[in-house]
Amino acid sequence: MRKPFIAGNWKMNKTVxxxxxxxxxxxxxxxxxxxxxxxxxxxxxxxxxxxxALIGSNIxxxxxxxxxxxxxxxxxxxxxxxxxxLAEYVIIGHSERRxxxxxxxxxxxxKLKAALAYGIKPIVCIGESLxxxxxxxxxxxxxxxxxxxxxxxxxxxxxKVVLAYEPIWAxxxxxxxxxxxADRIIQAAIRDVLVELYDTATAEAIRVQYGxxxxxxxxxxxxxxxxxxxxxxxxxxxKVDSFTGIVKNAMAALNA
Length: 256
Ligand code: PGA
What we know:
alpha/beta, 8-stranded parallel beta barrel, 12 helices, 8 strands, 15% strand, binds 2-phosphoglycolic acid
């Protein structure tokens, strides 16, 4: 069975001092959580301090981005080995990076292969725009993102990938997909495509988070859906109370 996984994407928020306070709070409130994988993804400059603050906790740490080259003249970029020193996970291809920083399915694929080569656990984001959603193009578009991301990735490596299905129109807006729609799209655009690219066992092994305005109040209805294995949380991951509420409500729903 797929282990549920909830991760917080802090985006460009929290200084070192603020990040350490948030991490210390989560370490305490989430200490009793078992049977669920947890992670927070701070800004690169905060990774070191947050990793230190979370030693001995059940919360992993992830980077929000990295470059695929090993080293060299790539001013401003962070290499896989640099991430590997400080983090267990890396978010790849978040829609904000695709929108503002020119990431494409091809750069996502290169970053994914680099993460896998270095033993960093990738969280690959996919999701459609409002226009694509309204035009009925969601399944073909997200399916295309999956094909692009997994190009030349072996089945063995693919099974290690976590996907985050995040409809762009639901990110930071307070709007969410309905759990039924999210589940249906994950089946049609993600699992069915993974069966085609690999096989049923691989498609069933890959965990898929839902992302987009996840809050304590709506977590339960998503986590109980058969295709949804957790959440990637933005805004509500910035406070101890709300991230803890999301995790606890997910646990309660799964144990009900
Ligand atoms: P949100 O962001 O929870 O603030 O909508 C989710 C994300 O972008 O990962």
